[in-house]
Amino acid sequence: MSWILVNPILIPLVTAVLAYLFRTSPAGRWISVAGTVVLLFASLIMMGEVLEHGVIAGQMSNWQAPFGITLVADYLGGVMVVITAITAMATVIYTLAEIPERLERLGFHALLQVLVAAVCGAFLTGDLFNLYVWFEVMLISSFGLLVLGGSKEQLDGGIKYVTLNLVSTIMFLSGIGLLYGITGTLNMADLHLAVREVENTGLLTTIAVMFMVAFGVKAALFPLFFWLPASYHTPPVAVSAIFAGLLTKVGVYALIRSFTLIFDQDVAFTHTILLWLAVATMVTGVLGAAAMNDFRRILSFHIISQIGYMVLGLALFTPLGLVGAVFYLVHHIIVKANLFFVAGVAKRIGGSTDLSRLGGLYAHAPVLAFLFLIPAFSLAGFPPLSGFWAKYVVVKAALDLEMWFVAGVSLAVGLLTIYSMTKIWGAAFWPKHPDGIKPRLGDLPAGERVALMAPIVGLAVLTCIIGLFPEPFVHFAETSAEQLLDPTAYVTTVLGVQP
Amino acid sequence: MELLLALTIGVLMASSVYLMLDRNVIRFLFGLILLSNAANLVIFLSGRLTAGAPPLIDEGAYAPTGVVANALPQALVLTAIVIGFGLLAFTLALVYRTYRSLGTVNSDEMRVAEPVSAPKTTPHPDPAAAPGTPPASDPTLDKTDATTTPTGGEARA
Amino acid sequence: MQSLILTTATRLLVALLLVFSIYALLRGHNLPGGGFIGGLIGATGFILYVIATSVSDARSALRADPANIAMLGVGIAAFSGIMGAFAGDAFLTGQWLFLFAAEGEKGLPLSSVLVFDVGVYLAVFGGILTLVFAMEEEI
What we know:
By secondary structure, chain A is an all-alpha fold. Chain A is built from 21 helices and two strands.
């Protein structure tokens, strides 16, 4: 059992080593592609086991929990790994046409694979300190990817990204220290039991807020998001896409995991804070996007606004709310990565990501225009695309609790999302190009065209499938929400049967 | 002893917050270093201070004998120190590189990625053109950036 | 920096530090020491060499790119974890081989733990040197 769980971490790590040693030859990038394909298969095998058993856990080096290193996959963790593998594969294929050899020689693919390994590790670990370690590995590889190449924009964005994220990890570390001090364990399943015996509940709530701040920075929650719009538009598009798809979601995942498994003692206090943070996040994100005038910067602000929906689902803390959070998480990774890919192609054939210097994409690249509309409408929540169901479930959960204001805000934010999408459409796709360029997909070399378009088409198809046949996915999300709200299976699988 | 360590943590945290409020990125970085040390001390202290022997198991024995120190927080602190060391070294290199490239360590002046406003007519003063700045080594010439810089474009248009 | 005393002393010290780093690596098996501290001591040797001569001299003395050494170290550490698979154990489980073992005598114990430590040694050694070389070349 433990090997099935280790594979999604080990495969990208080994791929990283090989890709780095072969970085000066074309073999490096093909190793990277092959690694992600193998990773996808490994994650699907793992997912199969999860579907069969509910929760699977493995102890590294045979040290029993709570003493050893525990890896555990439940429905949520499993699906996140699968979606990570899909995003990683799409990104690596995209990089074939986008990343210049200069960056490959600096070890681009190795950094990317280490990032994927760390993200998978964060989704699979059953131990808070290991989560911290994976966060750090994720950070250092993402720093590298962010500033690789060293243009002025990248360095400028990199400084803000690095400094603010470092504050967050240190906050996380202090929280871990204090939590260990009052419970004596860091295994998450064991913590679930241990926090129930803690007498000093006030201190526990304080620690919960520390974790909220730490994960809030990672997830780009309302007052803590400033690093994201400062940096996400600066690196190469493929890097933007995988960051947009995965990194903030690790923060959201950590929030969901810790605030269902560990900090579920003082829900009235902690989850109310989360609720209002989520509302503020939605509003500021979408307003920030409305003020922007650059393809990628608009999309960056939309990440923030969408994070609000996921955290809202968690903050409602009802089964339906968590179903919405999980569904939203999965849907958003696919859609957001895809929109960044489209932005990259627009930049490639149109010459810029600045909306005032783009145009004519609808007239000359109608296929791209169509492929933009699918994720854009899905993001805004049009039926029958995946975003509709995600938004519907979250809003329904809010209405069930008679939170009219919250539901109203989330619907209004959806409308404003459409406004930003029409802004992109109205500037980049509809009018003539200001410089008279005719941005045609056909002008790209055939190999690059395939590498650029294949991930976009694949992810768009995935969005449509989730949108048209939501039944199994919603059912899946329901089961994972049940597991989150009642972690008995999680705890017993990790610790063995409790007396 | 606990009180002394707790006070030390408090002083470290306070000074780090003071340093991090500065616009100078170098001072911010020093604040981060203090903060990460404070976090390490928090872990160390939360493992409780015991005057015990190193937790080494004698040959043939199954468990250590006598009063031994709690090894887990020490392992955690060691890991955290190592990771923090790597990250801070990287950050220092990044700050230096940024200084070389942008010619400033003042975070208020770092507006290349996010231009203050984008007036379409007036050219935005390039921060890198500040006096006494060595020319940026080789900024943006990758395949994708050959046509235009991603966002500086709107400011320089 | 050009200093006759330093350059002369460095020749001796570098060799001494490298040998001592291997000693610390192997000692870590049963006593304080190990791959991490060994790697740091080994890196110190080359950092001293950089101070006494120059980065390019140190690079040619090292022969291999330090970043490659670091990645190789990560690979070796990962491989030591995979060794558990051959015995049907979980990831990272220690595998032991007792050479020349006899009755009441353990012989020479070799283990995947040592392989892991060697990986850590190389990763730390290469990682530190990559960073130091890069910083030294920038400044």
